[in-house]
Amino acid sequence: MAALGWLTPRRRSATARSVLAGEAAAEAGLKSTQESLDSLGSSSTPTDETPSFPVVGDVRAAAFFDLDNTVMQGAAIFHFGRGLYKRKFFQRRELARFAWQQAWFRLAGVEDPEHMQDARDSALSIVKGHRVSELMSIGEEIYDEYMADRIWPGTRALAQAHLDAGQQVWLVTAAPVETATIISRRLGLTGALGTVAESIDGVYTGKLVGEPLHGPAKAEAVRALAATEGFDLDRCAAYSDSHNDIPMLSLVGHPYAINPDSKLRKHARGLEWRLRDYRTGRKAAKVGIPAAAGVGALAGGTAAAVALHRRRR
Question: Looking at the DSSP assignment, which residues form a beta bridge with residue 197?
């Protein structure tokens, strides 16, 4: 059963949409992980870097990693957008439109509701009518073309430490759950929580389930997954570069600021959270991903979301 009309943003509050997005991401992530369980095994690749912090071998502990500029240099959905543009999913004028909207958000530091809704609707319209399997296949190709060489070795080592301790490791990202699942599988992680798009019979409808997995919605996704898997959040760890993820970082007992933006760095220092910076200089801290991530980020992002059929008893 596809998501019903009463799940639309106009019928639910922002908080309720965050909860819905989080629950949908947890459900989709668990489904994707179960389907690919046989292929996970011990496929993760060890790194030379040894993390300088202790990781307890506790099965009730898990690690949650933001994706963009935390695990991967730049924005995964920007790279996916490049791949879709290369495959003529949308035109140059749409690319420029997405770039302007995302650049405005990066410069202003706040989300304009009209900009975000317009960009979301435009991106969803690009993939409406396309099959989920088609986007999955394209996503595998795009990972090899644009993403494989952009993984931060330092963060990869942190994730590997949790895996070596027998703990689950999840990506938690506003990127589409389909894209996130591909990256998670390629890195040998447990699974991924991401933005979920609605589909019927394997075809995208042009609607989201809830809202993008961003900010508070990420915390709700982690909370929902922890309840299902029996994690003790006080024993879990979370990693992110962005102040937007403070709700998720605050949810766990072991928060880490990775390549942090200025707001997160200040917040983390005030609370004595651990910091890691794998960038090569202050230029990286200033530039990071804003210029690149603006081009096609939302366009590529929503296009890759995985189908979710929600059933409630």
Answer: 208
At residue 115, the pLDDT reads 55
Structure confidence by residue, pLDDT tens digits, 63-73: 999 999 999 98
Catalytic residue numbers, as ranges: 66, 68
**pTM of the predicted model over 0.85:** no
Closest among 172, 169, 214 to 189, alpha carbons compared: 169
From the number of C-beta atoms within 10 Å of its C-beta (0-12, 13-18, 19+), residue 31 rates as: middle
Q: Judge whether residue 6 has pLDDT over 50.
A: no
* 208-231 b/e (C-beta count within 10 Å ≥ 16 → b): bbbbbbbbbbbbbbbbbbbeeeeb
With the C-alpha atoms ordered 138, 142, 144, 145, is the resulting torsion angle positive or negative? positive
Count of Cβ atoms closer than 10 Å to residue 288 Cβ:
21
**With helix as H, strand as E and coil as C, how does 167-228 read?**
CEEEEEEEEEHHHHHHHHHHHCCCEEEEECEEEECCEEEEEECCCCCCCHHHHHHHHHHHHH
Say which range, 203-212, 217-226, 301-310, has the weakest mean pLDDT: 301-310
In terms of Cα–Cα distance, which of 288, 236, 225 is closest to 78? 288
Residue given tokens 């997995």 in the structure block = 213
Instruction: State the Cα–Cα distance between residues 216 and 46, nearest whole angstrom.
Output: 32
DSSP 59: T
